[in-house]
Amino acid sequence: EACDDGNTTATDGCSATCTTESGWSCSGSPSSCSPVCGDGMVVGTEACDDGGTTAGNGCSATCTVETGWTCSGAPSTCTAICGDGMVLGTETCDDGNTTASDGCNATCMTESGWTCAGMPSTCMTTCGDGIIAGAETCDDNNSSAGDGCGATCLVEAGWTCAGSPSTCSTTCGDGIKAGAEGCDDGGTTSNDGCSATCTVEGGWSCTGVPSVCTTSCGDGVVAGTETCDDGNTAASDGCSATCTTETGWTCTGAPSACDEICGDGLVVGTEACDDGDTDAGDGCNASCGVEGGWSCTGTPSVCTPNCGDGQVAGSESCDDNNNADGDGCSAACQTEAGWNCAGTPSVCTVVCGDGVVTASEECDDGNTTASDGCSATCVVEDGFECEAGSPSKCTKLEDGCGCRSSGNTPPVLALLVLVALRRRRRRG
């Protein structure tokens, strides 16, 4: 007999035939039998036997199942119980549940993008690892702010982020100036200062959130409601201080080149006059300069000839460089009766034979025929007398002394009268 435990009951270590059963060790009389822990056989009071007596693997050195484990089979195979809050065996975490996507998965392995610690495990996302996990809305592989994905891996205002790791881009037109945007006015319409790609357009300046854009008058760029921009904000040069085209001007190009509108009746810029037309010969010429011999004033300009300046202009028929009467050209620059004026300045000469007696003429009988009393040079001929008046009436003297007899007038007295008349006429 290898043993005798005082009975013939089997499975108590000593069989009915008093042999030691497998997995047991028996000694003494009567025999005392106990399971052999570590032999891989689960017998007696053993809850497990994994073939060893090493603790911490699910089956203890006394072949009892350790807390957090479940063991089955002989030899026993032991596995950690996932979801009991104890991190055992191959588990890298155990958060007390078997729910996925909370950092610790259903097999108690730490999920990508998370770090877990403690028992039960507390799991947190790892912002900056390029993996979007948990409450993260983005993860761009860094924890820097201002690039669309903030330091806590939340999408920043004015950005959209997609992918893992996240690629973030600004949202132009949302009214938030972000990233490389120079402006964002809440729309994507061009030509309002902020372009469809949220860059500040030429000739504008934009500030605020959302951006308010205004034209920059004086920068030489025609933008917005500007009708001109000549590169300055000076007035009276065609383009005003608010970049609107001034009255009497036309502006083109950028920067704007502004020219006076000659002929519109407005005297602006370098114009010396503007009489409402571009006709020459009326005092104000086609380029709105005052013509020689004229003076122009007012808006629209009223131009009058300058009588006495030696230039024949407008309604003047002569201009002898003075305003004196009686020299052929009157104080109003009109040719006087009995005169002929030509040239600039005018040279005036007496017209003999026109029937008008002028200062230098003794007579003028309306012709230049000789021997009719008034010569071809308008001098009273010998043997004639010419009455005052225009045209002259000349009569021939009848007596041999060159005197006309009249009744009982003594010849000597008649001669004296004739001499006096001739002297008077010559002086006149």
Plain-language structure description:
- By secondary structure, the chain is mostly beta strands.
- The chain has one helix at about 410-425, and strands at about 25, 30-35, 70, 75-80, 115, 120-125, 160, 165-170, 205, 210-215, 250, 255-260, 295, 300-305, 340, 345-350, 385, 395.
- The longest helix has 17 residues, at about 410-425.
- Residues about 400-420 have low confidence and may be disordered.
Write the layout of secondary structure elements.
Blueprint: E1 24-27, E2 32-35, E3 69-72, E4 77-80, E5 114-117, E6 122-125, E7 159-162, E8 167-170, E9 204-207, E10 212-215, E11 249-252, E12 257-260, E13 294-297, E14 302-305, E15 339-342, E16 347-350, E17 384-387, E18 393-396, H1 411-427
Antiparallel strand pairs: 1-2, 3-4, 5-6, 7-8, 9-10, 11-12, 13-14, 15-16, 17-18
